């Protein structure tokens, strides 16, 4: 068993929420648990944990079938369909909003749900952290991931732990061109930062330890707005990070969230807002539909079974980050519909501009020379 690979799959979707876009109804979570319990009993899953962040239903699963597996993705899809039916019955808000296709074709990528997966041989002890965020986008992970895996002022292990001293490789996706590039850190951090600093376009997909190529992190990089060709839902992201013994310590991983980075999302997916680290029970983004939230579920794997989760942001040492996030939220909100609180035109998920330009076009007068 020890040498057999385990796959950790986190698949999420917003299939209807209450009230408005704030939370997943407990009945939907129960339905999802029921569905995954059956799959575990039948041997498809080794284990599962169902949770939510804001209006996103999160299926955290382990199995022995590798990434992009048709049956695992099919299970997630079916589970979301069952939950959608329930959401419709309760007349919840936006029932089925992230399920963009009626016919499942083998892989949920590109269909709406967000996916982060990684396959590895479980170590003697395997601490993993699953981050889940709402009212934001995958670019929100850029700054924290840089700090965790490339910044020695955050992660002292890069300096003083021989097993991490060779650094990490970042695989970065260009969502516009649909290409990816691998950058080697530390020597390419200046190049890396020009990409990661452009959070609306470039996003970290994966991170590998350079010493031995072991996978260290995997993020969901689906962009729903692009998939659908128009805005139909948020691409609220998930992220898996392996920790300890040659990877950043749990405390080094979490330290990166003490600074509430400004991320795209918030009201109508059209604003910058601070990414606030909260305990599970506080993942209810209700102020101006936000500000963006992140929760951290820590697990120990035991032959693929979950020991946990531990609610890792349920710690007063994150109070200051939450306070700073509220302060930043107040400051940004004072800008109302002005940039840089409001996103630039091309990044907004709602806009009246094309209609207005059409309606007002005759009122634009050329300037006299
Ligand atoms: C949804 C979100 C919300 C909605 C907003 C308007 O994830 O970010 O801010 O965009 O509540 O929603 P509609 O257009 O459904 O009334
Ligand atoms: Mg919603
Ligand atoms: Mg959401």
List unreliable stretches of 5+ residues.
Answer: none
Which structural category fits the helices and strands?
alpha+beta
Residue-averaged pLDDT: 93
Categorize the overall geometry.
Answer: globular
Total E-strand runs: 15
Strand content: 25-35%
From the N-terminal CA to the C-terminal CA, the straight-line distance is 80 Å
The proportion of residues forming helix, as a percent range, comes to 10-25%
Number of helices: 9
Which small-molecule species are bound to the chains here? Answer: fructose -6-phosphate, magnesium ion
Taking Cα atoms only, what radius of gyration do you get, to the nearest Å?
21 Å
- H and E string: EHEEHEEHHEEHEEHEHEEEEEHH
Biggest pleated-sheet summary: 9 strands, mixed
What does this structure look like?
Helix content is 25%, strand content 27%. It is α+β, with helices and mostly antiparallel strands and 369 residues long. Strands 5, 6, 7, 8, 9, 10, 13, 14 and 15 form a nine-stranded mixed sheet that branches. It has a four-stranded antiparallel sheet with strand order 2-3-1-4, covered by helices on one side. Strands 11-12 form a two-stranded antiparallel ribbon. It binds fructose -6-phosphate and magnesium ion (MG) (2 copies).
């Amino acid at each position: 068993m020890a040498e057999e690979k385990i796959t950790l799959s986190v698949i999420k979707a917003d299939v209807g929420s209450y009230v408005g876009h704030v939370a997943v109804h407990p009945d939907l979570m129960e339905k999802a648990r029921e569905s995954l319990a059956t799959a575990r009993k039948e041997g498809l899953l080794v284990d599962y944990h169902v949770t939510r962040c804001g209006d996103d239903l999160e299926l955290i699963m382990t199995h022995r079938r590798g990434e992009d597996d048709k049956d695992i993705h099919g299970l997630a899809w079916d589970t979301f369909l069952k939950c959608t039916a329930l959401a419709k019955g309760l007349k919840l808000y936006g029932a089925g909003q992230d399920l963009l296709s009626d016919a499942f074709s083998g892989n949920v990528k590109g269909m709406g749900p967000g996916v982060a997966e990684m396959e590895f041989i479980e170590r003697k002890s395997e601490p993993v952290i699953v981050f889940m965020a709402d009212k934001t986008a995958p670019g929100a992970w850029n700054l924290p991931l840089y700090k965790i895996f490339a910044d020695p002022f955050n992660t002292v292990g890069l300096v003083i732990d021989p097993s991490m001293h060779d650094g990490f490789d970042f695989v970065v996706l260009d969502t516009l061109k649909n290409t990816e590039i691998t950058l080697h850190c530390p020597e390419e951090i200046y190049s890396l930062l020009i990409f990661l600093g452009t959070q609306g376009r470039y996003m970290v997909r994966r991170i590998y330890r350079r010493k031995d190529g072991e996978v260290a992190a995997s993020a969901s990089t689906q962009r729903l707005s692009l998939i659908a060709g128009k805005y139909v839902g948020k691409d609220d992201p998930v992220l898996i990070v392996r920790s300890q013994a040659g990877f950043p310590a749990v405390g080094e991983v979490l330290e990166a969230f003490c600074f509430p980075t400004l991320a795209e999302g918030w009201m109508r997916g059209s604003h910058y807002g601070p990414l606030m680290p909260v305990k599970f029970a506080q993942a209810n983004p209700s102020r101006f539909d936000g500000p963006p939230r992140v929760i951290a579920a820590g697990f120990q794997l035991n032959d693929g079974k979950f020991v946990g989760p531990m609610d890792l942001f349920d710690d007063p040492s994150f109070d200051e980050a939450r306070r700073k996030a509220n302060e930043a939220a107040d400051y940004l909100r004072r800008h109302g519909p002005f940039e840089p609180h409001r996103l630039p035109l091309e990044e907004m998920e709602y806009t009246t501009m094309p209609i207005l330009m059409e309606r007002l076009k005759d009122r634009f007068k050329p300037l006299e020379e």
